[in-house]
Write a structure and sequence with these properties.
It contains eight helices and four strands, in the order βαβαββαααααα. It has about 210 residues and is mostly helical. The structure holds glutathione (GSH). The site of glutathione has 11 residues, from helix 3.
Length: about 210
């Protein structure tokens, strides 16, 4: 059976879980796998030593975007990748935006406040401050995009929404929140997504929420 490795505190692991739970794809999930130290098991599936790592009887893969795109080809179409070329392009853009800009900001806050202390390290307050300083630009971009929109791309829930919502759970775990007076569209959006069946199921599996 297909297997996914990676602790579900990771926004990238959560992204694959959100995708498979929405698509109704079954896999075994080993939530005990951390990215550090790099175990032989993890490196045998993803030589980059990062989570998520995925394997089935045909392939071993890393990278959440690659894993979701592979599963879409294998089991889809699920409707989670837009049909219209321009919407498809934008959805992939939001996937990248999450991996780079959002994680650069939220990852710093989460890693230092939550992950480092869990691993016996200390919170680097200057790194937290850097992350907090980067956050408004990220939230402003989403706030503008979500004006009058239910979903980020087109009229349907897509891989763009799956990607973008993931780091918000890490933001809340790190004791930050989305200010409703500054980012009302972002808050409305994540709260509406949280009610979706596959999202509620995934967040419950991960002990995560957007509040
Ligand atoms: N772009 C990758 C990022 C994966 C990633 O950075 N995962 C983190 C955990 S959230 C990790 O494994 N970090 C350990 C490392 O970079 O060595 C993806 O989308 O899967």
């Amino acid at each position: 059976m297909a297997q996914l490795l990676g602790i579900n505190l990771s926004p990238f692991v959560r992204k694959v879980l959100l995708y498979v739970n929405e698509a109704g794809i079954e896999l075994e999930h080993d939530d005990s796998v951390l990215p550090m130290p790099k175990t032989d098991l993890l490196l045998s599936i993803n030589p980059r030593g990062k989570i998520p790592a995925y394997s089935d009887d045909e392939i071993k893969l890393g990278e959440s975007s690659v894993i979701c795109a592979y599963l879409e080809k294998k089991h889809g179409p699920t409707g989670l990748y837009p049909e219209k070329p321009a919407d498809y392009g934008m959805a992939l853009w939001y996937e990248k935006y999450m991996e780079e800009e959002m994680i650069a900001a939220i990852g710093k806050i989460f890693f230092n406040r939550v992950a480092a202390p869990m691993m016996g390290g200390e919170c680097d307050e200057s790194a937290v401050a850097e992350g907090l300083a980067m956050l408004p630009a990220v939230l402003e971009l989403l706030e503008d995009r979500l004006q009058g929109r239910e979903f980020l791309v087109g009229d349907n829930y897509s891989i763009a929404d799956i990607s973008i919502m993931c780091p918000f759970a890490n933001l809340y775990m790190a004791n930050e929140s989305v200010d409703p007076s500054v980012y009302p569209n972002v808050l409305r959006y994540i709260q509406a997504l949280e009610k979706r069946e596959s999202v509620a199921k995934t967040l419950a599996m991960c002990g995560a929420s957007f509040s």
